[in-house]
Amino acid sequence: MIRMASYNIQYGKGKDDLFDLPRIVGELGEQDLIALQEVERNCPRSGHVDQPEEIAALLPDHYWVFCPGVDAHSPSNDPKARHTRWEYGNMVLSRWPILTCTNHVLPRLALVNQFHQQRALIETVIATPEGPLRFCSVHLDHVSTDTRMPQVELMEGLLHSHAIRGSGYGGAPDFSWAPMDPPEMPADMVVMGDMNFSPAGAEYTRLFGDIAGSLGRTNRAGGFADAFVAAGHAEDAFPTIDAARIGQVKIDHCFLSARLAPFVRSASVDADAVGSDHQPIFVSLDLAAAQA
């Protein structure tokens, strides 16, 4: 059984306005694969802390990668730290080796009246005991459907384009360039993160089809499945944020290759977590049964 979690950690800031990375890691519990969003380093608001390094130190048995969506100069009064970058983005931690990592910079529309940031999706290939698995951490734009839909379409495209794209390196082996065999690019994919849309949104309909009356969702064969629905829950069960701007809604999700849906064993939200403005989500997947 593979235990997976996702948490938008709001750069470490909890509901009590305290910055507490150990609290966040404690709320995640024992997980095999973890997707984090809003992780940063060298930012004044979070004390110029290198959050990826600190989180990794709290989970010493996990491999990890961090990829920024935002990468900008961060002024410092320390003359020894002239080349300091504010990096803000996503992180993946894994109990097993991360064979490859690709940072997909998502489409962005420049706006005039709203602040927003460059968003990204980390696509990793994990060497699980049951074979390689694509595991992704994503953070989509918060402003509107208009800014998110191109990002949703790219995310959906990644599901199907693995064979065309291949891994980060490959083709004919050339050990003068790469000291190991090219890794496999598996078809199976899990993407977790803060997607900033609810099941009532047009983005959800884009991925899972519209509602055909009493027949329910017109889910497309070969597309994504919602892990919470696969676990037997309603689409909008378990809100993951309570914000004045959008209300109490579920905007953090776990989507996976439709083939894996029958092997989802549980999905839940920790409604009591206080380490961020979001609630962490948890999914268990019987990948061994899926590969049997």
TrEMBL record:
Entry's Gene Ontology molecular function annotations: catalytic activity
GO BP, sorted A to Z: GPI anchor biosynthetic process
Endonuclease/exonuclease/phosphatase domain location: 5-278
GO cellular component: membrane
Pfam family, one: Exo_endo_phos
TM ranges: none
Name recorded for this polypeptide: Endonuclease/exonuclease/phosphatase domain-containing protein
